[in-house]
Write a structure and sequence with these properties.
alpha+beta, two-stranded antiparallel ribbon, 13 strands
């Protein structure tokens, strides 16, 4: 049953949270009688299910000096998606942190992935006199994104500060034939191979630090592009633009490479911590600070759009080299 409900894959996070996450029926948006019986859990000990925007209670006055209302509640990626305005089918966002986390909206359709993605609800809101609309998305995770730059800094001493990676990568016009697969903890979506290991290939005597730095930024962007490709294939809906957030989006070269390998514009918001923004927008909508969803949409701002500049032949060549390198990194940690 768990296998069926998770689209044929059971991930570590699913197993860890099975006592709660897998008790919820995302079709009915309620606790599942069948799953509660399976896990021998009484529904009386489970919390009430509410929309993401609405009254959840108040903070103990002894903590903040007054009973501050709690009116927004959402998972981190779903909150980021709400902060980015990812709602209509075919809209998507990527949050770049230690890893990279993608959410691709599918509207009222709940799509079961056949390419290693998760199906999950988006944030729901309940405006006065209205029944909350249930919208869904496909979610994908790249294990290593910003952590790759951290490893190059701390593990290899390639740069002194993480921010130095951009100028070093920009010092060369190409990766010089170098590809990096950042499988430092295995591969996440869409491969889900815990036995894969990191790989740097294409080294020659002409290789120097700039080529490795550029290959690292390309590895992050190509990892994201591979998940986007799976999302488009599962949904049958093309992605017209990618909205991005998180600390690594401050790297202009990374964002340009991301636009290039996807072949679509990449939008960076004025507020890059959109997980916090999304939670604030949900709370503000419930309290009336934002009177309606149009006011919420008006609170979102795009700071810069990165347009793709790479020609199609070069993009295809880079993607083919990436797929080749990824295939070589798999099953490396299998006992021999």
């Amino acid at each position: 049953l768990i296998w069926r409900l998770t689209g044929g894959r059971v991930h570590a996070t699913d197993v860890t949270n099975a006592s709660r996450t897998l008790l919820f029926d995302i079709r009915a948006m309620a606790w599942s009688d069948e799953l509660c019986r399976l896990f021998n859990v009484s529904q009386t000990i489970l919390p009430e299910v509410h929309p993401s925007s609405g009254p959840f209670g108040t903070v103990d006055p002894s903590l903040l000096g007054s009973a501050v209302p709690i009116t927004g509640c959402a998972g981190d990626q779903e909150a980021a998606a709400f902060g980015q305005g990812v709602e209509a089918p075919g809209e998507a966002k990527t949050t770049y942190g230690t890893g990279a986390f993608l959410v691709f909206a599918t509207g009222e359709r709940m799509i079961e992935s056949h390419r290693g993605l998760l199906t999950t609800p988006l944030c729901s809101i309940a405006l006065p006199g209205q029944t909350p609309a249930h919208r869904y998305c496909l979610e994908g995770s790249v294990f290593i994104a910003g952590a790759l730059v951290g490893w190059l800094r701390d593990g290899l001493g390639l740069v002194e500060r993480s921010g130095d990676i951009e100028s070093l990568a920009a010092s060369v016009e190409s990766n010089g034939g170098v590809m990096i697969v950042p499988a430092l903890t295995g591969l996440g979506g869409p491969h889900w191979d815990p036995t894969a290991r990191g790989l740097i290939i294409g080294l020659s005597r002409a290789t120097h630090r700039g080529h490795i730095a550029r290959a690292a930024l390309e590895a992050i962007a190509l990892s994201v592009a591979e998940v986007v490709e799976s999302m488009q294939a599962d949904s049958g809906t093309p992605l017209r633009r990618l909205r991005v957030d998180g600390g690594a989006t401050g790297n202009d070269l990374l964002m340009q490479i991301q636009a290039d390998v996807l072949g679509i514009p990449v939008e960076r918001p004025a507020v890059r911590e959109t997980t916090s923004l999304g939670a604030a927008l949900l709370a503000g909508l419930a309290t009336g600070f934002y009177p309606d969803t149009r006011a919420v949409a008006a609170a979102r701002r795009v700071e810069r759009t990165f347009e793709p500049a790479m020609n199609e032949a070069e993009r295809r060549r880079l993607l083919a080299a990436w797929r080749d390198a990824v295939s070589r990194s798999k099953a490396w940690a299998v006992p021999r």
